[in-house]
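re the bet — no i am not wrong, look at it urself. input seq straight from the record:
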Amino acid sequence: MLKKRNTAAFTFLAWISFVAACLAMYIGIYFLNEPLVVKGYYAVTAAFLIMSSFVLQKVVRDNYEDEEKTKQIGKD
């Protein structure tokens, strides 16, 4: 049986902290004393930063797992 790397509580904590950080960022942008075009720019770039962070962590994880598989094949 495959053992999970993280507990349910840790996974929940990670998602809650992510959601709280996103909410705080967008609430800050909403209450920013700037024109709508500036707020829109910050909101779009914040969304892009969030998306690119997910993609980057997936690529780093996949590359690490590929290296581990390559090392395992080399041992056989």
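see?? The CA atoms of residues 2 and 8 lie 15 Å apart. told u. also The longest helix spans residues 36-75. so pay up
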